[in-house]
Amino acid sequence: MSSFDTVSIPVDQIQYDSQGLVPAIVQDYLDGTVLMMAWMNRESLQKTLATGRTWFWSRSRQQLWPKGETSRHVQHVKSLRYDCDSDALLIGVEQVGDIACHRGERSCFHQVDGQIIPPPADTISQVFAVICDRQAHPSSSSYTCQLLAAGDNKILKKIG
After folding, report:
1. Which backbone phi and psi does 130 adopt, to 5 degrees?
2. Burial of 62 (0-12, 13-18, 19+ CB in 10 A)
3. For 44, which of 9, 37, 106, 138 is 20 to 30 Å away at the CA?
4. How many CB atoms lie within 10 A of CB 89?
């Protein structure tokens, strides 16, 4: 098993449906955005646990598929849980490329009444991007740059 944060997943105790499948809800592990829902069977769950990357069962192709095989938008598993009835999975992932949907969107849940809607703001990622930018392009007028230059002690005192 990979080193991601997981409870012991009893693969044989998961309640698969009559076709041997269980729904897997995939969400961004940092902000909780639901990225997609796909189906897993016993083998895809075992591969996911063994590799630390998501594997699913394609009902249309009737075969296993590793997420991101063609798009390179792989998902690194950070957590994996099952629900109280053991008949659904919740997978927290780091989404490479920030695109989970085969239509090029961050989330497969990007429509309301057939209209494309913008994704919710991901404040933590936006703040992190600003900090990285300030570090890469220092400016003496930036308080963030001043904190970064002062070192860890100053930063840690500032945040808590």
Report:
1. -65, -45
2. exposed
3. 106
4. 22
- Report pLDDT for 31: 86
Structural domains for the chain: 5-116 (3.10.20.810), 123-159 (no CATH)
| Amino acid sitting at position 133 | D
For 71, the token pair is 């798009």
Token pair in block for residue 109: 């849940």
**Is this prediction's pTM over 0.85?**
no
